[in-house]
Request: fold
Amino acid sequence: MTEAVASLIFCATCGEKMASSAAACPKCGAPNSAAAGKVSKKEWLPTLLLCFFLGVFGFHRFYVGKVGTGVLQLLTLGGFGIWSFIDFIMIIIGNFKDAEGLPLKR
Ligand SMILES: [Zn+2]
Reply:
């Protein structure tokens, strides 16, 4: 198995364990300097175009690495179009994250 495991770091403020990709400490809310400014390797425009043309097949989710929910969208035709439409809105407003929870590169 070569599955990537999210590495854990310790919060500089309270010492709580948290994922290195987390934007902020889940305990004290201090921003995570290690993740600051981190963006996805996946790009925003291809994700938007994939969602627009092939969103009901979950292609935009496959692209950003969200394979599980991508398959689910493929099988349900994007939650009968509603789910993929919500994804489309999320991509436009910049709220759509990749499989690691990072914002898409613009
Ligand atoms: Zn903390």
Observations:
- The mean pLDDT is 90.
- Residues 45 and 61 are 13 Å apart (CA to CA).
- Residues 11, 13-14, 16, 25, 27-28, 30 surround zinc ion (CB under 6 Å).
- Strands lie at 8-10, 17-19.
